[in-house]
Amino acid sequence: SFEIFQIPIPASEDHLTKWIETRLRSFQTDPASFLSVYEDAVKLTREEQARLLNDPNIHNFVLSESGSWAAIASVAVINDETRGWASMVAQDTDKQGFLLLYIWVHPDYRRNGLASRVLDAATHW
């Protein structure tokens, strides 16, 4: 069974460590899926990584097997009207808008609907 949780802001040291591990693993596993590259991300200091994770406008969600923090899927969405993106997404609806920054599922778990589950949680939190 799986569980989905939002990484709190500010993130704990443990959450930060696991998030960095997952982020770097995703860049190595699927480099063509991201604008960032592993070689740049691995050079960031822990403080720089913490600033990314603790941005109050970016919401990070993780799907893991119950009882484990090992990320099987992760997603980040932004809802920041100061940047103009969210309002553009939702301009013709009464729904709140989000911009998907990334979504990643570990290759061993793909084709099981997990991306949809974590994305659904992220956009309904």
Automatic annotation (TrEMBL):
It comes from the Eukaryota. GO terms for molecular function: acyltransferase activity, transferring groups other than amino-acyl groups. Residues 22-125 form the N-acetyltransferase domain. InterPro entries: Acyl_CoA_acyltransferase (IPR016181), GNAT_dom (IPR000182). Pfam families: Acetyltransf_1. Gene3D superfamilies: 3.40.630.30. This is N-acetyltransferase domain-containing protein. The lineage of its organism: Eukaryota, Fungi, Dikarya, Basidiomycota, Agaricomycotina.
